[in-house]
TrEMBL record:
Residues 312-848 form the USP domain. Zn(2+) binds at C185, C188, C205, H218. This is Ubiquitin carboxyl-terminal hydrolase. Belongs to the peptidase C19 family. GO terms for molecular function: cysteine-type deubiquitinase activity; zinc ion binding. It holds the Pfam family zf-UBP.
Amino acid sequence: MAADLGELLVPFMPTIRVPKTGDRVYKSECAFSFDSPESDGGLYVCMNTFLGFGREHVERHYRKTGQSVYMHLKRHVKEVCSVPSHRGIRNMLLFLNRDFNGEDYEYEDEAKLVIFPDHFEIPLPNIEELPALVTIACDAVLNAPSAYKKQEPESWEEEIQVSRHARSLRQLDNGVRIPPSGWKCQKCEMRENLWLNLTDGSVLCGKWFFDGSGGNGHALEHYRETNHPLAVKLDTITPDGADVYSFEEEEAVLDPHISEHLSHFGIDMLQMQRRTENGHHTDNNPRPRVSEWEVIQESGMKLKAVYGSGYTGIKNLGNSCYLSTVLQVLYSIPDFQRMYVGNLQRIFDYSPLDPTQDFATQMAKLGHGLLSGQYSKPPMKSELIEQVMKEEHKHLQRGISPRMFKALVSRGHPEFSSNRQQDVHEFFLHLINLVERNSAGSENPSDSFRFLVEERVQCCQSRRVRYTQRVDYCIQLPTPIEAATNREELLAYEAKRKEAEENRRAPPEPVRARIPFTACLQAFTEPENVPDFWSSALQAKSAGVKTSRFASFPEYLVVQIKKFTFGIDWVPKKLDLAIDVPDFLDLNRLRATGLQAGEEELPDLMPPIVLPEDTRGKTLNIISPEIDERAVMQLAEMGFPLEACRKAVYYTGNMGPEMAFNWIIAHMEEPDFAEPLTLPSMMDPLPSTSDSPVGATPLDNSPPEESVAILTSMGFPRNHSIRSLKATNNNLERALDWIFTHPEDEESDALSDMADTEPNDNAFSNTNSHSDSTLSPDRETSGPRVKDGPGRYELFAFISHMGASTMSGHYVCHIKKEGRWVIYNDHKVCLSERPPKDLGYVYFYHRLSSS
């Protein structure tokens, strides 16, 4: 028999591998479905790629790759009957929260090798009869850790070392105090990925990443100029610590004295909102939050569980409810259902060899898991009878686990790849961004959310105006507390609270502010001051005001209520308020009208360039560029010309040899590839015209060559890169998004005259001419694709947050299906008795037909 098995496996021996360090073994979940070893058909693990497949999908992998040997894993689950029938409240809570891996179950695992296509089975272990290589490979697969342990940053904090600069860090007494909000980079307008230098208090942006996140690298530039080694990321500060980076050590580090270092700049991290291990908050006055948790989750009501297609829950992986709620809402929208579930077989058939890393495959897998009903089946009568006999209240819904999906969409993102709670609005935009990037050349379901905003800026002195348009996916409504209908009650509560605080008595029962939705909408449409406004009509700074209107209305409107703010003591907090959000919404009166009769436009001029004091009156004929010579030498050692290496490092902004290498590959065929680097003089006169005011820079000035080089090094055509930068005011992050949302058209590039005109003027001209009808998503326009139509909407979903901060708490969502509201609370899906529409955070509306 041993000889027979050996001979049987001989033809397949070259394809059987032993997992090496770095190989991920997917032995707990199918790459195309949520089948696992506990499923009826078990799980098949390829002995070459170590990918897992359910019974329905293993044949596809065999036909596509020719891999014939799989390990079949099957887990038989048996419930332990030693649990007493009468449990206390504590045991009941444990019982409701446990999963298959709980202590009330025991397992019997079975493994065997299966050879396709004949399905020949070899039981394991079978050490004596199998070749040694096969035995070693099987043993390694069975003992391999979960594939996600190599992806999830669960133990990264243990690997981070204390910085050698932490104890002796010198902090300047320069009087810098960091405000609790309103941060932006001191060298550009970036408001994300901001880092506080712990030596001098400078707030600067981080480096730019391939996924479009990050900044312009000003924090790193500042270190090179000053050698101030440590910086902390501003939006990561909690009482438990913060993300600290050492530029000198070139890695994330620990700072045991972070509290003292932050207090030097007025940040008291120990007084910030505290969180428990599961993300729930604790504070000195928990009563309003307890009430909020009960109301939003509809606690105390006997909610009826629902099963079937569209009623599948999603397991909480630990602070992953922000992801679950967004996905539940998206897959209740026909466009997403059609794109990913309607095209399921085509997506699976054309998936890459590693489907776990393919966005479309994982979106289709998740959509099928939520909509098929396969993982949301009602309990059998025998199970219900058993519950009644045991006087138990077991929740029989288990839901699907989004572990593979989360690992993919959060990869490389500093926040979403962590196990911390996140802002559901930020994740929604992140996911829409990924949908955009992965929908080039095909139907894009995120078109349903995209709309155009017209911004009208007026110079208060000259009364001239400028109209521009931008793309958006969500409107953010302010919450004017002064418009609360129970203002007197709020004032009385505040007086009692202060009195109780002074007399050291218990605080009074909190009062929730009630704000009309119309007041929020009115605040959104009010004119706002434009800081540092430069009037091209006056050629000087002036007062300016901006108003925003809808240049188009989306098919699905997303409304975020701005509930979160920072206190003056840097404590992040959520405003305790309720808003009477309507079921039906008419925004037609907010449609943009464009330039009106009698209005005069501001000239298309840019502010003059202001030179530093030490360069005025001097002639600068040569600019000495800053170039990372270490990166240059690394590239030169690879055999590239030295001057070409210098150009590559310079034009990629000193972002490292990898970026520079990409630039070299993209520019090797250019005739001046090995020519010396030449730069224009700072004092070279601009081409002047008789009608150009002195000191004004024409608006059609070319984007910085460094930014163009970064985009072209990523494989984008030069003309398309220049257009994207012009359309986004030379912002790299937005330019990358623009490229993905504007697939290149060679004919339009050849005929386009956008290089000689203001981008915003042409970008949306065709869109506005079709404002009375819905645009087809594949309609060729010169601007972003939008599905314009009437501005009348009906509420169909909302996501609610419980807790004191977006850094903590819990999210649930309510969705209206088949005329009834359903609450999705992680894996539990029930009919809603009292949907708390007034306590939502993000609301979703769908457009009503014009009939």
